[in-house]
Amino acid sequence: MENKGISHEEVLQSLREFKKLDMTHKSGKILGSMCTCPHPVGVEAYKMFLESNLGDPGLFKGTQKMEDEVIAMLGELLGKRDVSGHIITGGTEANIMAMRAARNSAQHKKHIDEPEIIVPKSAHFSFKKAADMLCLNLHEAELDADYRMKMDSVRELITENTVAVVGVAGTTELGKIDPIAELSELCLEKDIYLHVDAAFGGFSIPFLKEAGHDFPEFDFGLEGVCSITIDPHKMGLAPIPTGGILFREKKYLEAMSVKTPYLTKDRQATIVGTRTGASTAATWALMKYMGREGYTRVAERCMEVTSILAQGIEESDFKLVTQPQLNVVAFTSDEMSPDEISSKLKDKGWAVSIASYPRAVRIIVMPHVKEEHVEAFLKDLNALE
After folding, report:
1. What count of other Cβ atoms lies within 10 Å of the Cβ of residue 161?
2. What is the pLDDT of residue 252?
3. pTM surpassing 0.85?
């Protein structure tokens, strides 16, 4: 750092140069990310609340009131308005919080020396972080032929040390929905905490169902579901970072709260201490502005473009791994490995990603991906040699 600062204009010019190195969602070239262009209404709200800190909510009572309203709106969207929770950084923090709540709640019932959690092989890598941080033994359940959690495998893995089972509503790699209703019944029977990772699907499945699409139940309408992760910065169009964690009962937050003697609130349950209120403001503004109709249009449009992409791949020399359940398309080739395909597409300016189970090229059709982008992509894909 220089001894004497540079001018405002020099700073801005340097920032512009850094910015030129970044890809943009608006270009339509980012095809492997579950994030998207933040909606202008959310950006405006975010800027208004940059100094608010929900880690010390007594100083920011308006922002705290917004968070309470946002959690209630998200709960209503997911089957139960009177839930507890917080707007946080994203799905990783939410999943860590859920596993911490599950572990602590189980320990309150009986002492468990080596607590265990069961997740599907398709689970997000954040559960590996949670297991490492919280000293949990992680077991991966097998998937069925359609890449969803296999119930027989879950039953085989359950022991007296199991403190949580995780199901996913919109898997990160393939957009699949696990059999949450069956998991709910099993977890109720065994008195085990059930967490649903709906970081991706939470802001699209409810709206698609209202529009007439057929999706299985996955939310608090199922009695066994104890917590749900939902990310507004994905299909909710909020700025990064904006995540959400909802708990069926306040007792789960209380099970992991710690004393905060010098702040305006006695206890705190989130992983992050200093917590921006800007994400809460953006989510509140967008949910009010978009309404159910607005989000339904966004979700349906993404599925329409997904269908165009999937059909284009089926008509090419490439092969779909599975029919899309949400706006995620994965494909392979008999001639090239996924890494070769990705590398050649990168040379043409496209940023795709690689699914690991099964190994395939993975594309997420987020709201910034338009029909013209898909047409250009298919043209380049079919020209690969």
Report:
1. 14
2. 98
3. yes
